[in-house]
Amino acid sequence: MLPNHPAAENAMMCSGHAACPGCVDALSARHVLAALGPNTVAVIPPSCMAIIAGPQPYSSMSIPVYQPTLESSAAAASGIRRALDAQGRRDTQVVVLAGDGGTYDIGFQCLSSAAERNENILYICFDNEGYMNTGAQKSSSTPLYARTASTPAGKTTRKKDLTGIMAAHGVPYAATASAAHMNDMRRKIDKAKSMHGLRMLTLLIPCIPGWGLADDAGLVAARLAVESGAFPVYEIEDGERYTINVPKTRPVAEYLKIQRRYRSLDADEIEALQLEIDAGWARLERLERLSRAAGTEAVALA
User: Fold this and answer.
1) Edge-to-edge strand order for the sheet containing 122-127?
2) Residue percentage of the chain with pLDDT more than 70
């Protein structure tokens, strides 16, 4: 735990929950809740986080939790937000804690609609790159070549660019983060908390059993994912201003070799993944340069 971190004084997530040993989901949720504070209502659809939080009316969290259907998280959060506003409780945070299956896939139509309306909610996706709670099947967040229960020979399509899609909605804030870079993650939660409108954070959650990791390798995998560019950490404000927060410093092979889901890759496939990551990184850098140039031009004209 970070020095002087709020969780050290007021734990928002109790011990004894049902997370797997070494689970980065539970670690990330603990810090998210500590940053948001007790004046928060959480919406948690079916997911690993729903299991960790516990079945209603029980909960491992010391805040109100509502568990909707898998596809309706953003709609439920929108309704709760409006009800709180009607009661004059505008300072209460409404946060969705959902997995990638309920965000990238099944819940996306509700999320897109909430983004179009710019609902005043914070939506956090705990992205473990598959339906890990039901047997590690692939989702549209699963990366190219990753082996899952439903893609035993490796996934043949690329991971969906959810952050870019949310930025295309023009929401005030869309960002990625990782518990392996905790200061950056905490800064982004604090920043999102202070903003109004729909804010979207996607947190990488290496899954110990689903990815085939050692119990103590979750944070190692998260750090390698970020530093290899497999999971770039960046933020987009108002759909236009791009900022890369952590540089790419490692080859992707270092990230792949610690995971069972990539163990069957040959040299050509590893090279293909490296080329895909390099192309994506070049695109991000180009968008960052363009947004900085636009900002400089706007200041000059003012």
Assistant:
1) 65-66, 40-43, 93-99, 122-127, 199-204, 173-178, 234-237, 241-244
2) 94
CB 157 within 8 A of CB 3: no
Q: Tell me: the pLDDT tens digits for 131-160?
A: 998 999 999 999 999 999 999 999 999 999
The domains located in the chain, with CATH, are 6-301 (3.40.50.970)
Crossing angle of helices 108-117 and 73-86, in 10° steps, is 40
Task: Say how many CA atoms lie within 13 Å of 130 toward its Cβ.
Answer: 27
Residues in the chain, total:
302
Query: Rounded to whole angstroms, how far apart are CA atoms 137 and 86?
Result: 41
Query: What pLDDT does residue 5 have?
Result: 45
Average pLDDT over every residue of 70-81: 97
Nearest to 122 by CA among 226, 32, 237: 32
